């Protein structure tokens, strides 16, 4: 009977339901099928390796400050209490290090860069950020990458304060780029009109660092 053909059964709805299940046509990383979760050339680790320039600064929360300067309408120096007063968010994301290890399902807590940007209000001319850390490290990001919905300035990992070796008390996490962009021991953020190279970017590494495009090294 014609009555038996409900809208749910039509060929188009079946196909569309299948697309929905596969996340077809979605470009967001969250919809990436599980089989595509590991970027090319990466292997999975269960531990969390420590990588840095070898100087691990000890910054107690009582002495920690985050200076926000450059092209922002509200230049601010956050102390620990002021940073804790910003909206706090929890997220889960994967780490992809350019040295080829990846680690899944890290549970972070901190301030999303979206909420952070609301607080400091970048000017229209700002196109990039330069991050500076307590060990002297620098790294650059396009503002559009810094503002990614899964980027977070973290103070906790798996419900515990971020350890010193992993960049505590405060580090950035930008999971859609290689992990060298995720500055540990964050000290200063400059909003700038040009995307200048940071430490690794001056030393042969890519200006953007998208693991899915294997943007490991600069081409010049
Ligand atoms: N301040 C600072 N941040 C840094 C680095 C560094 O040397 N100093 N190294 C980067 C690199 S190359 C990597 S792979 C990750 C490593 O973070 P982890 O030690 O927590 O795994 O931190 C990034 N952030
Ligand atoms: Mo790295």
UniProtKB/TrEMBL annotation:
<feature type="domain" description="Oxidoreductase molybdopterin-binding">
    <location>
        <begin position="57"/>
        <end position="200"/>
    </location>
</feature>
<dbReference type="InterPro" id="IPR036374">
    <property type="entry name" value="OxRdtase_Mopterin-bd_sf"/>
</dbReference>
<dbReference type="InterPro" id="IPR000572">
    <property type="entry name" value="OxRdtase_Mopterin-bd_dom"/>
</dbReference>
<protein>
    <submittedName>
        <fullName>Sulfite oxidase-like oxidoreductase</fullName>
    </submittedName>
</protein>
<dbReference type="Pfam" id="PF00174">
    <property type="entry name" value="Oxidored_molyb"/>
</dbReference>
């Amino acid at each position: 009977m014609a009555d038996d053909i409900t809208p749910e059964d039509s060929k188009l709805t079946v196909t569309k339901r299948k697309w929905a299940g596969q996340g077809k046509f979605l470009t967001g990383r969250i919809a990436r099928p599980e089989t595509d979760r590991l970027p090319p050339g990466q292997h999975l680790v269960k531990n969390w390796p420590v990588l840095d320039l070898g100087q691990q600064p000890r910054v107690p929360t009582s002495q920690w400050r985050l200076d926000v300067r450059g092209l922002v309408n509200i230049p601010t120096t956050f102390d620990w209490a002021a940073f804790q007063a910003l909206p706090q968010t929890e997220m889960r994301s994967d780490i992809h290090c350019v040295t080829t290890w990846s680690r899944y399902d890290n549970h972070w807590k901190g301030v999303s860069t979206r909420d952070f940007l609301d607080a400091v209000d970048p000017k229209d001319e700002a196109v990039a950020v330069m991050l500076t850390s307590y060990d002297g490290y620098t790294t650059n990001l396009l503002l559009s990458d810094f503002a990614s919905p899964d980027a977070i300035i973290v103070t906790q990992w798996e419900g515990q304060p971020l350890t010193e070796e992993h960049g505590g008390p405060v580090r950035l996490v930008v999971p859609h780029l290689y992990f060298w962009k995720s500055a540990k021991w964050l000290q200063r953020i400059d909003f700038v009109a040009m995307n200048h190279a940071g430490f690794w970017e001056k030393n042969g590494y890519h200006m953007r660092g998208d693991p899915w495009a294997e943007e490991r090294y600069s081409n010049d």
